[in-house]
Specification:
By secondary structure, this protein is mainly α. It folds into 2 domains: 88 residues, Arc Repressor Mutant, subunit A (Orthogonal Bundle), CATH 1.10.10; 69 residues, Arc Repressor Mutant, subunit A (Orthogonal Bundle). It contains 8 helices and 4 strands. Strands 1-2 form a two-stranded antiparallel ribbon. Helix 1 runs antiparallel to helix 2. 29% of the residues are buried. It holds the Pfam family WHD_halo_double. InterPro entries: Double_WHD-containing_halo.
Length: 161
């Protein structure tokens, strides 16, 4: 499953590890976990939810029958990269858009735009484009943080393996 929520990328991966540590070891309700993340990361509860879902996508948290819990397994940056591409909606498409050399957020968004679900367009006909352009920007910034892309003067570029 690929999940959509993506918090804004921080400057360093330390913020992701903070979010990971904020997810409880003993399962808690979604509201409790989001509140805990919001408090620890000093963000709104909605942003806390984005962090929780993003941690799930990266294999750092999971939902159990009793609630959400932190996954204790040590994740490497390689593990995070793989999970990002495989489980975060839009990550693979955004990276594919970088195959042609340096690309601006706008160019990447234009390539990505056909994948935006129709229901997202219909639920907010006047604001979906701005929201999804921001999501593409966040995806690109996470790709840079994970070492999957680079940022140059002319835009974002793919990083060779």
């Amino acid at each position: 499953m690929r999940r959509k929520p993506v918090p804004p990328a921080p400057d360093r991966l330390d913020r992701l590890w903070e979010a990971h540590r904020a997810v409880p070891l003993i399962p808690g309700s979604e509201d409790d976990c989001c509140g805990r993340l919001a408090t620890r990361l000093d963000v709104t509860p909605d942003e806390g939810r984005d962090w929780l879902v993003f941690c799930q996508s990266l294999g750092l948290a999971r939902e159990t029958s009793r609630g959400f819990e932190r996954i204790r397994d040590e994740q490497t940056v390689d593990d995070l990269r793989e999970a990002f591409v495989a489980h975060v909606f839009g990550a693979e498409e955004v990276l594919d858009a970088l195959d042609e050399g340096p690309q601006s957020v706008d160019v990447v968004f234009d390539a990505f735009e056909p994948t935006v679900p129709n229901w997202e367009r219909h639920r907010d006909p006047n604001g979906w484009e701005t929201r999804w352009r921001g999501r593409v920007s966040d995806l690109l910034d996470w790709a840079v943080l994970f070492g999957l892309a680079g940022r140059e003067e002319d835009g974002y570029v793919a990083v060779d393996d």
